[in-house]
Structure formats: C-alpha cells, structure tokens
Design brief:
By secondary structure, this protein is an alpha/beta fold. The chain has a single domain, classed as Alpha-Beta Barrel (TIM Barrel), CATH 3.20.20.140. It is 33% helix and 23% strand. It contains 6 helices and 9 strands; from the N terminus they run βαβαββαββαββαβα. Strand 6, helix 4 and strand 7 form a beta-alpha-beta unit. Helix 1 crosses helix 2. The radius of gyration is 15 Å and the shape is globular. The mean pLDDT is 93.
Length: 218
C-alpha cells in the first residue's frame, strides 16, 4: 500500500487544502491513504477522517500533528489530542508516547523548514528520509545515511500544502490490512520503504510566498 505520511490541510495557516480536495487528489495520485499533520493542530486530521467516512471513501486518513518543538518539527501520528508547542524534542516525544502516538522526525536536516538537525538518541519510530519539498537532494540524502547507520525505519512524505502535490513522495507500507492500527504497527516494525520524487520548485516557492503573506496579514 502507498501512503503519504506528511500532508497539510487548511487547518495549517500556510495551506488551503480542504478535506474533499485532499481525498480527491489522493485517489487520482494512486494513494491508499495519507496522514494529516497540521502545524500544532489535530483538527485537520479529524476533519479529513470524518469526511472520508461521510463519503464512504476507500482512502484511509491517519490523524496526526506536526509539533513545533523548541528545536524544530516532530510528526506524531495516531493521536486525537494536540501536543503543546515549545517543549524540547525529548519532552515532545514523551508526551506523544503518553498519548499512544507514533513518532517520526520529518526533514531533520532541512533547517529552512525547522528540521531539528539530529535523530540519534531519540525514542522515535521512523525518520522521514524523503521529503518532496526539499529543493536539493542534500537533506534527504543525509537523513537516509544517518537512519541507515542507526537502523531506523525510513518513510517518505510529500509535505504537501496543496492538494495536487499529495503523494509526490510516499511510503510503501507492508501491512496485513488497511486500518490505522495496522499501518502504524507496520511503521513501528520497519515494514516500510520511502519513495517518490521532488515537488516542482514553482510549487514550493508559491507556497512559501503564500505562507509569508498570511503571516503578514495575521
């Protein structure tokens, strides 16, 4: 199965992706499911999962959150409560574990996107070794090299901020059934493989300017 484990919805300030559009483009782009990881909010994942049920859609939505820790971003999948921003990475992970979350370090070496800059010594389930919004291959290549050395499972995510880019990079999931529990278990057991390609630069630049505009207007 193919899952995009890092997607943003309109519940992130720098994204306009509504649930219907995400579900539509996930289907068009050949995904079996995706994880909604909005910035410091679980509302988007809950809204997308609810909408998928209402539409009787065969796309599986995994609720999640991208937490803004004091050192950078941390993805937590499978939680229905927000995790306070501003804590250290270990404190953030501890809180995620208390909530039963699956922990992934996204784009760890992409400092312009709040990568934390390290993965060693952390209680994590996987490292995002392919983030499609990296404009060069350096950050992804370094993440893969270090995850390999540490024996940490690899995942991929588009980090999509608009619907068309969902699934641009992805994770192949080897799970016995298409349920949230089975997919998260496969991640924890290392039954995953990252793949895909980079987002075209014009989409990345467009989203960056959109995000800056929203911040100025806020």
């Amino acid at each position: 199965m193919l899952f995009d484990l890092h997607v943003h919805s309109c519940f992130s300030k720098d994204s306009d992706s509504d649930p219907d559009s995400l579900l539509q483009w996930a289907k068009i782009n050949g995904l079996d499911g995706f994880a909604v990881c909005d910035h410091d909010s679980v509302e988007g994942g809950q809204a997308c999962a609810k909408r998928a049920r209402e539409l009787d859609c065969d796309i599986l939505v995994i609720p999640g959150i991208e937490v803004s820790s004091a050192e950078g971003h941390v993805l937590v999948l499978g939680v229905d409560k927000a995790i306070p921003p501003g804590m250290s990475v270990p404190e953030t992970i501890k809180r995620a574990r208390e909530l039963g979350g699956t922990v992934i370090i996204p784009h760890p070496f992409k400092r312009t996107s709040h990568g934390i800059g390290y993965v060693e010594g952390l209680d994590i389930d996987a490292v995002e070794v392919y983030n499609s919004r990296c404009l060069t291959s350096y950050a992804n290549r370094r993440a893969k090299m270090i995850a390999d050395r540490l024996g940490i499972p690899h995942v991929g995510g588009s980090d999509a901020h608009e619907p068309r880019m969902i699934g641009r990079s992805y994770t192949e999931i080897d799970a016995p059934e298409k349920t949230v529990e089975a997919v998260l278990s496969a991640i924890k057991n290392g039954n995953v493989k990252a793949g895909g390609g980079r987002t075209p630069p014009q989409f990345v630049v467009k989203q960056m300017f959109k995000g800056l505009k929203k911040k100025v207007q806020a």
